[in-house]
Amino acid sequence: MKMVADACTIILLAKAGILEIAMDSFDVAIPEEVYNEVAEGKAHGAEDAFLLERLKNNKKFSLVIPRNKFMVEKIMMDFSMGKGEAAAVVFALEAKTDALATDNRQGRKVARINNIPLIGSISIITGLCKMKKIAKGKAIEAIEVLREEGWFEEYLIEEAKEEISHG
Fold first, then answer.
1. Handedness of CA 94, 100, 101, 104 (dihedral sign)
2. Residue 64 — very low, low, confident or very high, per pLDDT cuts 50/70/90?
3. What pTM value is reported for the model?
4. What is the percent of the chain with per-residue pLDDT over 70, rounded to a whole number?
5. What is the topology classification, in CATH, of domain 2-121?
6. Domains of the chain by residue range
7. How many whole angstroms separate alpha carbon 40 and alpha carbon 50?
């Protein structure tokens, strides 16, 4: 599966201890703006920023730049989105990726409007478990991190745990 990811999803997957496994399991593209946004965390000692830098140096993902700068700016203005999230949406459209990996509410809205297939952190974790890339226990732990670090509806967390446990 080829996907383009935004900063929110990258950070959440890193905190959940799943980012590197996801990048080993999927063809991941990250817009340069998203990379820079996450990398800013190095100034504050953010582990996810240092992990993403290592993954970049190890060529675990493709660093991309959307061609249509006007569309990036328009999406930013129309949907009150950051440049990284807008760049991820535009690249997903341009490259016709299999999915846009975002947990951002506005990013998901733009994707639905433009018929871009969506995937979020929860689905990536459950998918990795189904693919036997991570054990059920690791998947449950990762979902619990999302509960703590994210802003997911409780029913989504519980559904994911149920799917992992019985799937």
1. positive
2. very high
3. 0.95
4. 99
5. Rossmann fold (3.40.50)
6. 2-121
7. 10
CA distance 70 to 102: 21
Query: Which residues, including other chains, have CB under 8 Å from residue 52's CB and lie 6 or more apart?
Result: 10, 14, 19, 30, 35, 38, 39
Residue 139, Cβ density class (10 Å: 0-12 exposed, 13-18 middle, ≥19 buried): buried
pLDDT tens for 91-142 read 999 999 999 999 999 999 999 999 999 999 999 999 999 999 999 999 999 9
- Amino acid identity of residue 134, one-letter, is I
Instruction: Give me the sign of the Cα torsion angle 153, 131, 18, 3.
Output: negative
User: Which of helix, strand or coil describes residue 118?
Assistant: strand
Q: Residue 89: CB partners within 8 Å, gap ≥ 6? A: 75, 81, 100, 107, 110, 111, 114, 116
**Cα–Cα distance, 114 to 152 (Å, whole number):** 23
Closest CA to 104 of 125, 88, 128, 126: 88
Task: Please give the DSSP secondary-structure letter assigned to residue 62.
Answer: E
